[in-house]
Structure formats: structure tokens, C-alpha cells
Records
---
Amino acid sequence: MSNRILTMSRAGREALDWEMERRDEIFCLGEDVYNFGGIFGTMDGFGAKYGPERVINTPISETGFIGMAAGAAMAGMHPVIDLAYIDFIGVCYNVLLNTASKTHYMSGGNVKVPMTLLIGTGGGYNNAAQHSQCLHATVAHIPGAKVVYPSNAYDAKGMLHSALRDENFVIFLTHKGTAGVGWMGTPIKTTMNEVPVDDYTVPFGKVAIPRDGSDVSLVSLGMGVHESLKAAEELAKDGISAQVVDLRSLVPLDREGLLSAVSKTGRLVVVDEDYLSYGVSGEVIASIVEMDATVLKKSPRRVCMPDIPIPYSRVMEEAILPTAGRIADAARSLM
Amino acid sequence: MSLTPDMRRGFYRTMVKSRHFDDSMIALYWVGKTPIFAFGKGPLPGELHCSNGAEPVGAGVCAALSADDMITADHRPHHVAVARGVDFPRMCAELLGKEPGLSHGKGGHMHIYDPKVNFASSGIIAEGMAPAAGMALARRLQKKPGIAVAFIGEGAANQGAFHETLNIVGVMKLPFIVVVQDNEWGVSTSKAESTAIARNSDRASAYGMAGEYVESNDADDIYHAAARAVARARAGEGGTILELKTARLVGHFMGDQQGYIPPEKAQVDPLPLYRAKLIAEGVLTEDSAAAIEAEAKAEVDAAMQFAKDAPYPAPQDAYNHVFA
Ligand SMILES: Cc1ncc(C[n+]2csc(CCOP(=O)(O)OP(=O)(O)O)c2C)c(N)n1
């Protein structure tokens, strides 16, 4: 059957279901995964289907259960953890920082930690400073953890298959606004695309170019891709042809693919809902400048979350999110 | 330490005020969120965790505290904030994201701060534990009389922060109380499913402190237990785990249909019970109860009107207050 248009949440769920059906080493754990199927529905109905041995509802003890997942992975399992919101990594950061990401290296390659950590990120719905962060740079900065961030249903399914077949610790991020879950309102059209019934993988470390263009490159990830696509539409009305580049994977990062995309336009706007400083936007620009600064016709621009905690009130949050209007303005300023 | 009729009428008033506040917020929460429910729509955006059912906890515990004492609350802070006397019109304005709000619209409902009454809250589970212990330590270092109270849910008692903090409190014999609000549920996970023992108060002996469980969701019983814990803390006898059997009547957050709760576990509303008790004991009459209700509601309605009429912050205000 073709023409199946799914949300990211449903597409990811298919990959996890497919792998769980076939591989006993995969099991799920997290808060409210049994009854609720995880906050983004990736484990929707799994409690009834796989039972409490393989879909483990945990207490609110992240240090404990994420550490346990790392141990189970070392002992030959492949845990899939739902950590709801990335803001909560504060309480379990040591496992990510010092165990899951470093054990393989410290053991000289003798111990593997194959586990997948599903996390929701992002704001735009007025949930204030402790429930709206992106923080992907905070986790991507740790060597030894792969970090992926699909922005559409096809990639979500293919990249989750890849994560579940990967022998490493993979942090699998989804921007809440792109997941297509009920409480975020009507799903964003551009996140939903055709998803094959069969299993397939989307490899990590390859950028995607959801819209090609010749005047300016809008490089982004997660929700930023969709804001960039909107901005490209706006820019087209002014006769500006914008290319949209979706990073998809932060670790590994496709620097070559990035350079070749940006070379085509020579003008770069990096869009990131994570904080501006010390993050992805700096990494993207530095990578290009290091590889070949001459591809740039103009100094690049960044449209990011400023370095401030995220305010609750809508008027203030709207003022700082990297929205299509702001992206388009930045692109125009480069023409 | 003994309860007067005036205090009990005060409890009832506080509880009614808190309830009417939550009910008003719930009504406002649904504005703009239908037909397609989305957290981010309408005049009251984001997640909303209401306190309906937990009002006796706020009323009973806060009545046993004095102005020097410090409080940290969690993601469900309204009943404690109301009982503590947090600036109420400004709290309403904060939930609406308005400029005169307690945090000028930066905090929202999970992040209510009112330093005038030593009140803080946080949306990260058990995050208030260690800061409260630190507040207790500060009072000791300052040679001031206050103690500190952390309000958390029973689900939060499984966080590392709970156990680490209590061990330190035990070692240092800090004037500290953790109020564990046992409403049975942490989102959709029941206490029995998440906690290896029935009562968190039994964990107290592991930390060298007192533990008490209050079985009823009744402000009088809660007050007495809290007063005992406060007296211990003030006397230098160390900390208490005070676990209170309470209720969560309207779901984890707005939008939670609670399909996971079996009918036999349906929770009881403590307010009509308390009202009936006070009337039976002659502390209230039908008329005086109605008068208290009308007065509390009028206060809430006036504060809500203030909040609705208040201006939004300027968009550029987002950049204020990053640093002191
Ligand atoms: C560290 C952390 N983990 C998870 C969450 C998500 N979360 C918010 S409230 C909640 C349940 C809390 O249950 P409980 O402590 O019993 O309080 P209640 O909601 O019942 O009042 C969870 C899991 C969070 N906010 N912080």
C-alpha cells in the first residue's frame, strides 16, 4: 500500500513495533509508557501488546532507570527509554555524560552500550523555562553519543530503525511541535509525508535538502526546518530562491554535505531553536569556514533562541522563537 | 497548637478560595482550546496542573507555619500558594502571563515565586527538596528562627534528590519537613506500582528522622500533624517526613482523561466533607458557610478581573532579569 501519510509519532511507532516484534533484546522503559504509551505516543498500545516485562513503567527515578538501561545494554539488551522532555536530563545527566557515552571507549572497544534514548524538545506552546528547551547542543557536545533529530515522518521511521540496529548509545530527539501528537494541536503538514509499510533505514550523518534553491541556504533542524520552509515560501514571493538544509543528525554531522549545499548559494542562515551561544549554529558556521571560507559571499547569519531562559508569557516567547518571519528577514539581509 | 473555631473557619475559607481559583483557571483554560485541543492555545497556555482535592494540605500545613519559615512547592503549587498568602491578584496575573504577575509573566503556573512570603516552586520533580534543606541550613547559619518545608508528590519520593537530601537533613538535624502529598498517582502511574513500600513516612527511620502518615484528607488532622513536625523542627530535633493521604480530582493536567483510574479508586472531594463536619459541630451554619463561600469567591473573581484587565509584558521584556 502506498500513499500512507503519517505523523512522525505514528511513523516512529511503526519502527519500534517492527523491531520489538522480531528482537527480544529490545525493551521499553520510562515514566507512563505502559498506560500512556509515552508522551509522544511512540509506545502507544505497547503495554497491552508486549506486557509489563517488555514495557516497563518506571517510578520517577531517572538516575536509576536510565543508569539501569545502560547496564542492561552492557549485559546484551537494547533498551529504548522514553525521557519525555529534554529539560529533565538535569537529574540523570551523569549517565549520559559519563556512562552511556564513554563506556565503549574506556573499555577499549570491549563493552558496547546499545541503547536508544527518546526525548522531546522545544517550545512554542508557552510551557515556560523548565519545559521548553531544546538543549541538543548540550548532549551533542559529549563524545561517544550519537545524536539524531529527524524532522519528518519518513526520516523518523527510517532513523529509528537505524538507531535500534545501532550498537551505540543513540539520543533520538523529536521537537514536540513536529511529532503530530494531539496536545500540540493540528500536525504541521510538512512533517507528514509518505511512509513505506516495510522497514527501511535512513543512515545517520547525511543532510537532507527538502527544498532546493540558489540564492541562500537556510540550514536547520527539527522545528526550524518547517519554519525555514515557510520562510522559503515567503522569500520566493520576493524572487529569492532559498534552499532548505535539514541537518537530521548532529553526531555524526555531515560536514561535507553541508559544505556542498552551502557552496551552491554562498549565503548562509543557520536556524536553531536551541540557545545561540556554544551551539549548533556556531558549529555549522565554523565547519564551513574551516573547510572552505571562500564559498561564502557574505558573513553568515544566525536565527536562534537568544541566551535567555524561555519566558512563559506568549508575547515574550513569540518574540524570541526563530520564526519564519525572522528567518526571512535574515535571508533578505544577505541579498 | 490547639485549633480554634476561627482557625477552622479560616481553613474552610482558604480551601474554598483555592478551589474557586482552580475552577476559574480551568474554565479559562478551555477558552480557545477547542475543537482541537492544544496546550499552547487560548488565554491560559502551557500545561496546567490543578490542586482540586489537595486544598486541605495547603490549609492545614501552612497554618502551622510562621512568617520566617520557607517553602518550596512543586508543579502543582496553587493550594499551597493560596494558603501561604502569596500575593493573590499577582499570582492570577502570572498565570495569565501578564506584566503585573509575580514574575512579570516569565514564570507561569509551575514557577510561582513570592519572596515576601518565602515561597518558591519548580516544575522539575523533587527539585525543591535540596533547596529547602539549604533554606533550613541558612536559617540555622543566620541564627534566625525559621524552618523549611518542601511540598512534593508521592511520585517525587522516588527521585534521588529526595533520598540524598533527607540523608543530609538527617546527618545535620536540619529544621526541615518534607510534605509528601500522596494522591495515589504520578501522572498515570499508581503509588503501588512505583513505590516499594506503602508509606514513604516509613522511610524516615532510614534517615534518622521522624515520619508520620495522615490517613485523612482533613485540614484539622493535617494541621495537628504538621504542628507536631514544626515543633520538632523548632526544638532542634531534626526533620520529618510528613506524608498526607490526599486527592487529585481533575487529572494530572488539564486534558488528562484519567482513563487509567479504575472506578473503585475514584477519589473523594474533601471540601463538602469538611463543610458538613464544621456544620455538624456547630462551627459553621449553612448561612455562615455560604457567606464564607461568597466572600472567598468574590475575592477570587476580583483578582481574576484584575489579571484579565492587566497588560501583557512588552515582547522585549523577555531579555530582562537574565542576570541580577
Ligand atoms: C525530573 C522530572 N521527571 C519527570 C517529570 C514529568 N512529570 C511532571 S509531574 C509528574 C508526576 C508527579 O507525580 P507526583 O510527584 O506524585 O505529583 P502529582 O502530580 O501527583 O501531584 C511527572 C512524571 C518532571 N517534571 N521532572
Note: Chain A touches chain B at residues 31-32, 34-36, 57-64, 87-88, 90-91, 124-131, 182-186, 306-309, 311-320 (CB under 8 Å).
---
Amino acid sequence: MQKLKAWLWLSAGVLIWVLSTHGHSESRWNMTEGVTEISRSVYRLHMLIFWVCVGIGIIVFGIMIYSMLMHRKSRGVQAANFHESTLVEIIWTVVPFAILIAMAIPAARTLAQIYERGPAEVTIEIVGYQWKWQYRYVSDTNDAKVAYFSTLATPPEQIANKVAKDENYLLEVSEPLVIPTNQRVRLLITSNDVIHSWWVPALGVKKDAIPGIVNESWTKVEQAGLYRGQCAELCGKDHGFMPIVVDVREPEEFQTWLAAKQDDARKMAELTNKTWTLTELVDRGEKVYGQFCVACHQANGMGVEGAFPALKGSAVATGDINKHIAIILNGVNGTAMQAFGKQLSEVDLAAVVTYERNAWGNNMGDMVAPLDIVKFKSGQQE
Amino acid sequence: MTAISHEHDHHEEHHGPAKGLTRWLFTTNHKDIGTLYLWFSFSMFLLGGTFALVIRAELFQPGLQLVQPEFFNQMTTMHGLIMVFGAVMPAFVGLANWMIPMMIGAPDMALPRMNNLSFWILPFAFAMLASTLFMEGGAPNFGWTFYAPLSTTYAPPSVTYFIFAIHIMGASSIMGAINIIATIFNLRAPGMTFMKMPLFVWTWLITAYLLIAVMPVLAGVVTMMLMDIHFGTSFFNAAGGGSPVLFQHVFWFFGHPEVYIMILPAFGVVSAIIPAFARKPLFGYTSMVYATASIAFLSFIVWAHHMFTVGIPLVGELFFMYATMLIAVPTGVKVFNWVATMFRGSMTFETPMLFACAFVILFTIGGFSGLMLAIAPADFQYHDTYFVVAHFHYVLVPGAVFSIMAATYYWLPKWTGHMYDETLGKVHFWLSFIGVNITFFPQHFVGLAGMPRRIPDYNLQFADFNMISSMGAFLFGISQLVFLLVVFKCVFSGEKAPAKPWEGAEGLEWTVPSPAPYHTFTTPPKVDGGH
């Protein structure tokens, strides 16, 4: 008994110590309440079931541990011989059943809330890609579509343990999803390749992004701020490096941001439609090349022997122009050559193709206009 | 019946086993095959465990240290596949082979040659699966659930070998199940009615039906994958008119009953051990049988609770939520019955009982988190996080695996004729018990705090719990070497075991000498009285 008491004190001490050191940031231990009505009711549901389980656990384990301590052969106890009691067995079938019904009611209510459909102020299409998210603002009133990719922004040096890690290690993105506060935002979630899952715990939203299916969800966030999440479905090599950041702003700020974005999109549309000259394209293409291609193919177009092919004088950059476009748009399977068709604008795609055909003494003299890329893409879709 | 008398004639000609390697290659003896299954399962347990330790070593600290994400995914996939199909399932089949004939008073399994075949195709299946690690493009890297289209359109070429390996494992399981059903139906000793069968036999009978029902579904789903990959069909390819969600429906129609395949025999084991060491009959035998059958039935209608986030309609979510919650009722009945068996018993705590008690407590904790996961709205937050990892490891490690260990300690004297080293057994138990909890309990916390599963690297807020979890995993892993030592010592030395080494043990297996003779029950024993 003395020993038992000592153990009890010791475990109580450990428990208090653990709670006091970690108690201040509950998110390390438990689900957070989040910032939407739904995330809060999910949290309440979670805690309700948790405490029900704890209660049942205390009763069952209590009786079990009591028996294990008191009904031991070493204490000279003789075993009883009962092995049946219809009444008891009925009770412990019916009582849990009643508890389940009590839990099922609030659960069904919350579920119905999540599934409630209604008109939304903002609609956003979310498309999962290996391994990035695309956000497209769907709107009937504007011809200029706002769409952009959101990728991991944590530097590779941090992942490789070469430099110190930031507080939001692996949870930073190049460009967050921006939504307004206190407005219903409808989310249409789909995928371009494999199944991903769009999950932001504070919003209480997790929905799979599945190719060929558009899933619908919604959120209404009450507090402005940055909320972070991650892809929650194994989607290949970089599954762990596919964070989600939602930047929730006051409605006016959101409108300003959206207007600026729409303006950019409109300018881009104008650029696509304008008549380009070879020199303009080459100049722009050089910049695009410097940003996206230079790491592998090198500034002198010579590539890296044995790893990345040279472009200078290559069959691709001096051969059939359509093949060249196709490779840049679709990538090359099984190699490091990515598909840039959806990452870059038509203008940039046209520019970089033109640049590659006219740099480093390739001097093909031909060019691809942004509108050619548009045509090429629609031809591929058919 | 003629088959049985034929067996008898056969047995009288030679009583001992053949010598050398051929004994094991060509054996049709249920005890030899049981032993083969158990050793195979243990070696797979160590292999799958090593893969788990690679995972935990990488997750010891944030950042990428040891392996690349690609290899990390291969490790998670291989760990899951090997533990499910290579460790847990064959271990239970091994126990069934050893114990079911002895428990029902049969001379052997009903279909001994098929028994040999169903074991010997397994090493080939797993050799093929393991060989994918050395193939160009690497091993399967899409998780043990191998969701399409990641496993079809985007998979490494080795996926074809994986499919073939799965087919072989499935064939082995189905043959094993047919054999068990045939044995239980035809070879029970006179007087052994169904309601007098030991619960281990009952749970295995029900499990065998589950296997026959769902293994073909698994075979179907991998065949559909094969067609998609090599023959231009589009079952799971949206661009060709198929649906990736179809894959999940078919997979989980197999996958959910599968998780009960891995736990029902454990219920049987624990229902044998607790009464033996409480020196009191099992409480509620009849309700145990009905509860097992209800769990098996319910397991077929709850598969979509693995898919709450794929976007099924509200009514669908409600149905699957309610059906899933219902499983808590028969499972609760089982737990309450075990506790009632202990209550007012006269308990001793030899190693099998320690494992059985730990089973009841820790499996129940896994059951609680399972109930939490059943609540669909909450599942939106839990799904695909470490909370799920913690949940299914609680039911599979201190659940299924602990019950296998309990069974091994309980029947080891019968198998080897020697008592195992009780002190070492207890050391093994306590190290495993502590290791398992240090490993998996903190995973509840990181899961609730938002750490997705199957990621090779994580945010800093998850660092401390992951480190604790990894340390626990290494402790648990290393302590299994103690188990190996105990079994080795017991096979080759140790005090001579009496026919019934446990005071409160019940059942026909204890009526034969230890070690059990190579051929038992050449004349069927008579059964009367209770179960």
C-alpha cells in the first residue's frame, strides 16, 4: 500500500508538471477551437466524446484494476464461480446504446451544418497538383480571371538542416489564399493529377481533391489572420511539403486585393492578345529563362553533362517548333523536366520558347506568339 | 467420415516426423505448418519493424536527415503491407493451425496438403514484394491503402510485382480459411457442439468467413489496377470515365472487414487466457459468440467511414456514422465480459496474463479513439492525421500483436514441452508495454494538434512528441529480441512442462502430454459438460 501511494503521488506530480509546462499552448496537445462556427462545434463534439470515453474508461479500468489488485491468488482469494447473468448483459448492451444515441444527435446536427448549402459571396476553385495548390477566383462579373499557384516557401536549406528553421517551418507558401472575413466563401475542390486533401484545421475544413470530381465545401471566418494547414492525403514524393496558408482579411481589404489582382490579370490578357515582335519576346524570355530554367540548363544553355541536356544547338531547340512547345508545356515523363503549361502564363511560355530558339547562337529566327500557345493548348485539349 | 478413418490408418504406419529439410518442405502436419507460419510471421514482424524504425529514425527530428521522401514513402508502404499481410495474419493462421485441431479433438486439419501449399506460397509472395525495394524506380510508395490514381497512373513499375504478390497472399489466405472452416465443421470430437467450442475456435470460424468474403474483393481491386496499368482500361482513371473514388469503395469493402480479421482471433485468445489465470469460467460465453458475430456483420456495412472526406452525400455520411458507432456496443460487451471474468477471480499474473490484461486496457483505449473517429464531423479533423495512426496502432500492436504474444507464452509449454523463462518473459512484457505506450500515446497529441500522417518532415511544434515517440519505438523494437531469446531458450532448454501447466486452463489441448505428440487424437476424445 505504501508503495502504491508513492506511485500515485509520483504520477500525479508528473501529470501536473506536464500540464504546467505545456498547458499554455493547447494546440500542442489538442484540437484547437478554430475560428469558424463549424470548427467550434466540431471542437465541442470532440471534447464531449472525449469526456464520455474518459468516464467509461475510469469505470471499466477502475473495476478491472480493483480486481487485479484485490482478487489475487497471492492474497488467498478463492475464485467465485458465476459466469452468466442475462440481466447484467442486457444492461451493458442497452446503456452504451443509449449513450451512443446521446452522442449521435449533436453529431448529426453538426454534420448537417457542414453540409448546408447556400449562396456564397465569394467562390474559389481549389485545384490540387503534385505538389502545389492552384486558387482560382470564380466570378461572373469579371472577364479577367484571378488564378495563381501557391507553393512551399520554406527554403530547401532549412529542410536539409543547413540553416536554422523558421517558426512556421514547412507551413509557409509563396502566395496564400486570400478570403474576406464574415462572408460565406464557397470552396470548389478538385485535382489535376492524384488525390490531395485540402485541410485547414482552424477553419474546420478538410475535403479531398479528387481528379474528375468537384467537391464542395464552405467556410465563414470571423477573425482576420493567417491560418495554416497542409495536404492531408498521401499524394507522392512531396506530400509533406504541400502547405496551405489562408490569409483572411477584412472585406474592404479583400476587395482592394482582388481588384489589384484582377487588374494584373487584365494586363496579362492584354499582353497575350497584343502583337509581339521577336526582340520583345527574346528579351522577356531571357528573364523567364533566368527564373525557371537556368538552374538545370545553365545560363550558357549548356546544361549539366550527364544530368540536364544542353539546349545550345540541341535537337529540341533547333528542331520542330511544335515539339519544343509540347515539351515545355507537358514536361518529359521520368525526367526532371517539369510541365510548365499550367505554371506559366501564355506570354511567358511563348517568350521562353522564342528565347531558347534564338539564344546561344541557335539563331533559328522563328518565334511563338502568346496566341499561338493559346491555340496549341486548346488543340491539345481536344 | 471415411476420410478420417483413412487418416487414422495412415498415422499408425509412422508416428514421428520425417527428418531434415524435407520434413518442413513437404509436411502436412498441422503442428509443423503452424510452426512454419509462426516463424515466418515473426521474421516478417522483425522486417516490418525495421522499416518502422527507419520511419521513426527519420522523424526523430524535424528536417530530412536519413532518407529522402521517396524512400520514406516506400518504407511506410512496405511497413504497412508486411505487418498486415506478413506478420499479423500469418501469426493468427499459425495459431489456428496449431491449436484448432487440438482444441476440437481433431487429428489434423481437414485438408492437410492444401495447408502445406497455403503456407509455402507465402514466402514467395513476400520475397517478390521485398524484391521491389531493389528495382528501378523503387518499391511501392503509395501507402498500404494504395489509393488510385497514385498507385496506377503515377506508380513505379514495381507495382506489377506488388499486385502479383497481393494475389498470392490472397490465395494463401483463402485456402487457409477454407481449411479452417472445413476442419471446424467436420472434425469436431463427438459431443463438441458449436456452443461448446472454445471461443478461439469460434472467433476463427467467423474470421475465416470474413476472409472468404473479402479476399476476393482485394484480388478484384488489384486486378482492376492491373487492367488500368497494362491493358488500357479506365476503372480508376477519371480522364477515361472511371473514378478514383470507386477504388476506395472497393478497397475499403475489403479493408474494413480486414481490420476485424486482424482482431477477432485476438478476442478468442484473450477469452482463453483470462479465465485460465483468473481461475474462473469466462463470463458470458454466449454473448461473446453473438458479439463476435455482430461485429463481423457490422464490419461489412461501415467501410465508408474511411472515406468521410471524399464527398459522399449527407445521408451516406449519417448511415456510415451510425453503423460505425454501433460497433462500440458488441465490442463493449466483450470488454465488460472480460472484466467480469476477472472480477472476484483468483488471479495470478504470469506473462500470458500480463499480455492479456494489457490487451484489454490498451485495446479499449484504441476502441475509444475509434469511437471518436466514428463521429463524422470530428473525423473531418482527425482523418489522415497522426490521431488515426495512434488509433490503429493501439488496436493492432497492444491489440493484435500483444494477443499473439500472450498466445505464444500461453501455449509455448504445450508446443515445446518446456516451461519458458518466466523472469525473461516478464522483462519482455514490461519493456514492450512501456515501449508501446511511449511510442503511440504521444501520437494522439500530434495528430490532434494537426500533424498529417505519412509525412517525412514536420513543423517544429510537433518536434518533442515525435522525439519521444521515436525513442519508444526503438525501445519496443529492441525488446522483441528478448522475445526471440525466450522462445529459443524454451525450445532448447527449460523445465519440463506438465500436460497442464496452468492451474485454471480449460480445453482439450491440455489433456494431451507436453510437448503435444506429433499426431494427437488418433481416437477422438469424448466431450461432455460445459465449454
Note: Confidence is low (pLDDT under 50) at residues 22-26 of chain A.
